[in-house]
Design a protein that fits this description.
- The N and C termini lie far apart (31 Å).
- It is built from three helices and five strands.
- The chain is α+β, with helices and mostly antiparallel strands.
- It has one domain: Glutaredoxin, CATH 3.40.30.
- Bound molecules: FE2/S2 (inorganic) cluster (FES).
- FE2/S2 (inorganic) cluster (FES) is lined by residues 18, 20-23, 55-59, 62, 64.
- The site of FE2/S2 (inorganic) cluster has 12 residues, from helix 1.
Length: 110
């Protein structure tokens, strides 16, 4: 059966929560589950797609959350910070400077 891109939901942002061992030990699974659930119903924001990822290299600072297309990497994003992440980053468009771990320039595949 041919692929029909019309079947795909709109993806405006792609969020990766590292759930590899070091981040998992810091609570990444709870962060992932909370963010995955909350991302479906963010008031005023559509198309936030959340996935687990393998290690992104900031193992001592997890849970790490990486958001594209902004190329923003946040550190220590524990489950209790998910509501604040949603409000500040996704709804208010703020880069949360005190959580900033890294910033990717351009597309990561280039
Ligand atoms: S285990 Fe998450 S960055 Fe390495």
């Amino acid at each position: 059966m041919p692929f029909d891109p019309g079947e795909m939901p709109r993806v405006a942002r792609h969020v990766f929560v590292c759930t590899a061992p070091a981040c998992a030990d810091a609570g990444a699974e709870a962060t992932y589950r909370a963010l995955k659930q909350r991302a479906r119903h963010i008031e005023g924001v559509e198309g936030v797609w959340v996935n687990r990822s393998g290690s992104v290299g900031g193992c001592a600072h997890g849970p790490l959350v990486v958001i594209y297309p902004e190329g923003i990497w946040y550190h220590h994003v524990t489950c209790d910070k998910v509501d604040e992440l949603i409000r500040r980053h996704f709804q208010n468009g703020e880069i949360i400077s005190e959580w900033l771990f890294h910033r990717t320039e351009g597309c990561p595949c280039m």
